[in-house]
Amino acid sequence: MNIRPILAALRRHRTVTFLVALEIALACAVLCNACFLIAGRIRTMHMVSGIDEKSLAFISLNGYDASRAGELNARVVAGLSSIPGVKTVGIISNLPFAGPSNEGVTTDPSGLRYEYMVSMYAGDAASLRALGLHLVAGRAPSSDDYQPIDTYYPDDSLVLISRSLADHLWPGSDAIGKELWSGKFHYRVVGVVEHLSAGWPEMQAAAGRDWSLFIPVLPGSKLSGTYVVQADPAELPRVFRDVVAAMPKIAPDAVLDHNGSGMVSDLRDRYFDGDRAMIKILLGVILALMLVTALGIVGLASFWVQQRRKQIGIRRAIGATRGDILRYFHTENFLIVTIGIVMGIVLAYALNLIMMRVYEVTLLPLAYLGIGALVLWLLGQLAVLGPALRAAAVPPVVATRSV
Amino acid sequence: MFGYYVDLALRSLKYSKVLTGLMVLAIAVGIGACMTTMTVMHLLSGNPMPGKSEVLFYAQVDGTPASFAFTHRQEPPDMLDYSSAIDLWRAGKGNRQALVVDSPVRLTAPDMKQPALMEMLLSTTADFFTMFDVPFKYGGPWSTEDDLRRSRVAVISADLNDKLYGGVNSVGRIMHLHDADVRIVGVLKPWRPSPLFYDVAGGRHAHGHTADYYSKPEDVFTPFFTGLEINDGNFHQYNCWGAPKVVGHLTDSNCTWIGLWVELDSYAMVARYRAFLAAYAAQQTKMGRLAFAYDTRLRSLMEWLEFNQVVPGDVRLQTWLAISFLVICLCNTIGLLLVKFIRRGGEIGVRRALGAARRHIFMQCLVEAAVIGFLGGIGGFVLTLLGLGLVRRQAVPYADLAHLDAGMFGATFLLAVLVSMLAGTLPAWRASFIAPALQLKTL
């Protein structure tokens, strides 16, 4: 198809052509970045916690007397274990998506630097069994490694560390046997697990969402009130309901924290509520954007068809087929959209650069530009189809009439 | 003349219903999206204490112990250590001053036969209520004597009064907080500062996840030292140099965990208080307790909110999205208006031939654009209400705040008309240059 007559026609409508191209450029920029943001949120939502989420629930108790915490632990563990369907009850300070538990750690024995914010999980042997962490190096703590605590953690402990933290602290070398400090607390790595995500990942920078330590401890007054319950995934909802119902009888002196307790799958859902809402909003914006752009194209193309009725009639009279007319408008639209996309790519990167300064986003991958361009080309062709069909229906006889 | 132009505009709009519909729809959607996010932004970035925020200040002294002098700091920690907080409060150098620290507390109302609740307890000093204009329904605040005597008294929120006592006057009743009996001396009216400014701290480390700053105020308030005494063991540190010896007991720890607000009524007072903070830090450094004498701050309420970047990152992102969407709608409207005016070249030609000046044509076209904008504004207003309805259904702490106030209602129409007139300028200008002779020939 010869595009020179089309270009000649467009040159006569520079302003309108430029406006449509600009609209498409803006749409392209927003579309690419919105898709990229959606992909980022979806990636975040698929974060691997490393624990066996489907079969675990977390119970958090408040308001009990700290001096009777040891006895409370015993009552809760015995009480919950007797509920049918409960496989294991462990005592653990926190779980992924249950709440923040960050602490600064350092690899510097003098403790001068605290560069790494790490999520801490202090738990007993039963809790470690229930979590179902996947060990990739070293060994799990043996029964002698579980120690009592009188403040926060034992003074010296052998810990499990998540792989991404190990790789970050000691790149390229074996993490087993390496040491970490946090104030007076000293940790030695005994094993590396594939994943163990932070208790409240958004509190960590993007790279550190899987930086965690598991510290083996014996339950006591300083590790109490927070429990992990393991059950068969199919039975877990029923088991969790029973646990909540039984709690006032098992621990009448404590208050169940309804917001902080739940099946881990529910805690996870609640944690990602904001991301889900944002994805919906972004999708809404993309849809509205495409609708408005398509309406703009329809309006403009209809006007051009109406304006050129006579020329179309003449072309038809001197031998152009309906297909030729149809192709003319489609090609014209393709050209305008292409101009828009070229401008849009520049805009998309400009927008991306601005967002990189404010939000935790990376450089826009080329693929998104490809997707954006493809969508807009398709949208343009679809939007122009109606007006183009009307143009193709103009009978040749129009040429002989004065309009 | 204006009335005539409006009449012409309405006629012309009726003449091409589809094109008009498209333009009104585009403006309505753009305005709806924009005003929804702008309203949320306006609510979240607003001043929680209008008229009073200029005299409220957040005082900061760097609590880093002298033994940690090797750690380099650019900013003091967002909260105070116990000694500094108490010293500064006791000095009483401001017109008013309030210490604040919150902690979860177990609460029972013995005469109401309800299961125990976990509520947030704000331990603060008497000036808190007068400084922040907290409205009382029944009773009133406690006195400074109560602060010093550690009186077992409490003020409760309207919500909690509804929940425990069905909203009746509960002043004088006894509540059980942790293990202690406290007497209710005041019940608040519903009070919802947005953000909950006096609890804001640590925003610059939140990576934009700051929605929690818009939570409701605490439900129970007790005198500062009373709260520390009865809820001992349940306090959370903001930051520590070394773990506290007893978990949740922070008065003798190397931790920062208390906020101090001061009211300073004049510039002279502010200058004096700055000097006082500096002198205090210098003296404590000399005594060998603190490490960084130079590291004091006195930020006004709005400066403190800005420093903490309280508006959530997602809300800012949504606003930018909506604005770029409105720009796209604007482009769309410009294109369609251009089409519309050029299509009416004949009519414009006749008017010009009959003696209308260019500026008359320009004005006529602009009025037509404004009418379209006004119609779009109506649609945008409906969509804004719908959008805010969606925001209210979101699971965010600020959901209950999302309402359209009179200012934003007016802003909706103003923005719609402005946007459409902006969109109309270029097409109207082009239309005013249509040559009459050429158009008349084609008629």
Topology:
The complex is a heterodimer of chains A (403) and B (443).
Chain A: H1 4-11, H2 14-45, E1 56-62, H3 69-81, E2 86-91, E3 102-105, E4 116-123, H4 125-131, E5 135-138, E6 156-162, H5 163-169, E7 179-182, E8 185-193, E9 212-216, E10 226-231, H6 236-250, E11 255-256, E12 262-263, H7 264-271, H8 273-307, H9 309-317, H10 322-358, H11 366-392
Chain B: H1 2-15, H2 17-44, E1 56-61, E2 80-81, H3 82-91, E3 96-108, E4 117-124, H4 127-131, E5 136-139, H5 144-149, E6 153-156, H6 158-165, E7 174-177, E8 180-188, E9 220-223, H7 224-230, E10 239-240, E11 255-263, H8 267-286, E12 296-300, H9 301-307, H10 313-343, H11 345-353, H12 358-393, H13 406-431, H14 436-442
Parallel strand pairs in B: 4-9, 6-8
Antiparallel strand pairs in B: 1-11, 1-12, 2-11, 3-4, 3-7, 3-11, 5-8, 6-9, 7-8, 10-11
Low-confidence stretches of chain B: none
- Element pattern of chain B in H and E: HHEEHEEHEHEHEEEHEEHEHHHHHH
Strand content of chain A: 15-25%
Q: Tell me, rounded to a whole number, the average pLDDT of chain A.
A: 90
Measured between the Cα atoms of the first and last residue of chain B, the distance is 26 Å
Count of individual helical segments of chain B: 14
Shape of chain A: elongated
Using only C-alpha atoms, the radius of gyration of chain B works out to: 30 Å
The rough form of chain B would be described as elongated
Instruction: Specify the structural class of chain A.
Output: alpha+beta
> What is the tally of helical segments of chain A?
11
Poorly predicted ranges of chain A: none
Radius of gyration of chain A: 32 Å
The major beta sheet of chain A can be summarized as: 7 strands, mixed
Mean pLDDT of chain B: 90
Question: Which H/E pattern describes the elements of chain A?
Answer: HHEHEEEHEEHEEEEHEEHHHHH
Which percent bin holds the helix content of chain B? 40-55%
Structural class of chain B: alpha+beta
Total strands of chain B: the figure is 12
Strand element count of chain A: 12
Number of domains of chain A: 2
